[in-house]
Amino acid sequence: MSLRIDDRFKAILGATDRETLLTEVLRFTRHLGFTTVNATAVHDQPLDDVQFAWVSNTPSAYAQLADDVLYAKGDPVAQHCRHRGVPIVWDQSTYATAGHGARWEAQAQFGYCTGIALALHMPRGQHFFIGVDRDQRLPSDGEELSRLTADLQLFAAHAQEAALRILLPQVIELACPELTVRELECLRWTMEGKSAWEVGRILSISEQTAVRHLNNATKKLDCVNKHHAIVKAMRFGLIS
To answer: Distance between CA atoms of 121 and 81, rounded to whole angstroms?
Structure first.
């Protein structure tokens, strides 16, 4: 999948408050063909209270139950995202298999019939969850469903930066790390959609060396993957 940054993802980086954050999250949600969304920033540290903050367009009649943290702990989709970093594509069978058919029946009345959800688990106890939902069936074509999931993953890598900055500004680390010239070059070319092999050819280094520079940059930026590292480097003004 190309990592080239396009306008579908860049707009969220310009969000400055909760209103514009929600506007951009909703815009992308509808672009994917979904109607409701929840984007939640979490800060979880030992011996401290867990901090939650979110934006969503949850129907008001369902909001009290949907925003109940204790209720969410029993939700199979929430449990998947809490413990895993891969997306979950869910429908009625997901709840039935987990023994929560009644829960699905309750939320389906409000349009929560199918959806895609994922969580990014980052260093220092920072987490970002995003879930998009609708009352229609998901695409039966595997390639189309894979595209939707991949787009949501790439969007999440951008949205989490804005969400943490706006929703939990007190936990954001503002120090800008020092990256080597080679690390920055590898990030720049990866941002342009080049594979590690192509980056190596361009910079006259081996593919393994390019991968090592990318991994070092990702670690220095306290990121979970190269998608996240590119976005964070852009925010720090290290690449553009």
So the answer is: 9
